[in-house]
Amino acid sequence: MTLEEKLLKILQRTANVEAMDWLAQECAAQRADFVQRSFYYAFSGVSRRFDKKGGLELIEADAEELDALVSGFALEGWDQFRLGRVILLLVLAEQEQDVFLETLQKLLGTADLREQAAIYSALPLFPRGEQYVEMAQDGLRTNIVDVFDAVALGNSYPAQYFSDEAWNQMVLKALFISRPLYKIVGIDQRGNAALVEALSDLAHERWAAGRWVSPELWRSCQNFISPQVVEDMRRLCESQQPGQREAVALLLADDESGGAVADLKAQVSSLVDEVKAGGLTWDQVGREFGKDCFSVFDDKQSDKA
Amino acid sequence: MKFFDSHVHMVSRTTDDYQRMAAAGTVALIEPSFWQGQPRTEVGSFKDYFNTLIGFERFRASQFGIKHYCTIGLNPKEANNEKLADGVMELLPLYICKEGVVGIGEIGFDDQTKLEEKYLRIQARMAVEADLPIQIHTPHRDKKKGTQRTMDVLEDTGCDPRRVIIDHNNEESVKEVLDRGYWAAFTIYPHTKLGNERLVEILREYGGERIIVDSAADWGISDALAVPKTAAVLKENGTTMETIERVTYGNPLEAYGQSGQVSESDWEDAEGVDPSALFAGNTLFRGGQDVEEAMAQYKVIT
Predict the structure, then answer these.
(1) Considering the entire predicted model, what is its pTM?
(2) Quick check: is B119 in a domain?
C-alpha cells in the first residue's frame, strides 16, 4: 500500500462519500494536468467539502503501518481538513521542483492557521527534505500554538533535518510555551551537550524566580550527565513537586558510574526499581506530571505563549 | 434579538465597537475587502490585508463572541491602477476558497472607468468559477446608471442574480435591482435618515424579501451599531418583527449562506468566549477584565 492509499483509507473512515469522491477527482485532475489556480482552489476548498469539526478515527494498526511507510510519521491530533490537504500536497510534490517550491511558498504565504498546520505536517513527506529547514524554523517562530505544534510535535521533520542549534531552540521554546516534550519525535535521540547546558540554565533561571520546571526538561540529558546535571539532580531529589524524583530515577536507572550518582540513585531506589520493571517511563512522566505542571495539559486554548 | 451585519470594516474599528455590537446582539458579521482610505502601492499590502481578514481580525471578533466572515476582492477605486490590479488578480485565487470566505467583494464601479469594468468582469468570472456569491459596491455618484451597468456586466458574465448582493441601494436604484432578481442591501449611514422614515417606506413598498440592512461602518464617520439601531427604529415605526428579523438577520444569512461557508450553527453551537486565548502572542483583554460586564452597558434593543 502506498502512503497516499493509506492516508485515503484513514480519511475515508470519517469523511463523507462526496468529499472523498471530490478529493479523488482533484488528485486525478491535478496529476493529469497541473494548474496552479485550480490547485489553490482545491487546497483551500477542502474546507468546503470536508467537515470543519470532523476528526479522524485511528486504529491500532495505523501507527505501525504509517511508520513503516515514512519513519516517524503519525497522524495523532489531525483532523479531516489537515489530512485532506496533506493528500493534495503529496500530489503537488510530484510536480517539477521549481513549480512545487513556488506553489508551496505561495500557499504558505497566504495560508490560514489550519492550512499552515497542514503544510508543516507534510514536510517529512516532501522530496529533497533538506530544503525545508528554514521554512520549518519560520513555523516555529510563531506564537500560535497550533502552528508551533504542527512543526514540533508528532512531526519527524525536525529530528531528521535540523542542526543541533535549530533543534535546541525548538526544545527550549517548547518548554517555554508548555508544550508536551514527549510528543516531540526524536526527543531521546537528539540530546546534545549544548542542549543539556541550556536546559540546566533554564532550570536555574526558573528556580531563581521561585518557579519550577517540567520534569520533562531532564529527558534530553539522558546521555549527558555532566557534573552540573548531577548537582541539579540533587535538588530534584529534595523536591516535593510532582515528577521531579521520577526524572532522577529515569536519568539514573541504567547508570552504573558510582560515586555521587550512586548516592543519588539510592535516594530514589524504589522509583529506579519501577523504571527497571518497565512501570515508569518518560512518556508517562510527560503525560501524568505534565498535567500538574502545565494545568490542563492537552487543552491548547489554555496554553500561554 | 440577533443581528447579522453583512457589511462592516472591522479592521478600522476599536474593541469598543466589538463590545457594543456583541451587547446589542450582533452574532455574526461580514467584512468585505475594501480600500483603506488611501491607495495601496504594492501587491504585498493586499496580501497582508487579506491575511489579516482571515487571521487576526477573525480572532478579535471571536474574543467578543462574534463570528467573523469576509469577502475577498479588489475594490473599484484601486482597480484603476492596472499593474497593481493585475497582481491582485493573481493573488485572489489563493484566498477565495478559504474557510469563512463567503464571497467575492466588494467589487463594482466607482468612477465607472474601463479599468473598473475590466476587473469587475474578471472577478465576476472568478466567482462563477469558484461558485461563490458576489458582494457589489455601487457607486455613490451616478448611482442609478452605475448600478444598471453593474448588473449588465454581471449578467453578461454569466452570474446568477440570486447569488449577488448589491449594496448601497437607495430609493432610485432598488426597484430594478429587485426586479432583476438580485439581493438589495441598504447601508445605514448616520445623518442620511435612511435608518428612519426612508427605510420604513421602502420596506412598506417592497416587503422584506431579498432586502438586507447593513452598517458599512469603516474608518469614516459611521456606526457599527447601525443594524440594531435600525431594527429599533423600524419597530417603533410599526414594521413587523418578522420583517425586521428578515432584513437584519435571516436574509444576509440566506444570501451569503449560498457560499456554504456560513450557517447558524456556527454561532448557535459556539463554545463561548475565551478571554485568555491568544493570537500570535497577542491578547485583547488587559488586566482580567470581565467581558460580560464590559458589554452589558451597551444594550440597544432586546
Answers:
(1) 0.86
(2) yes
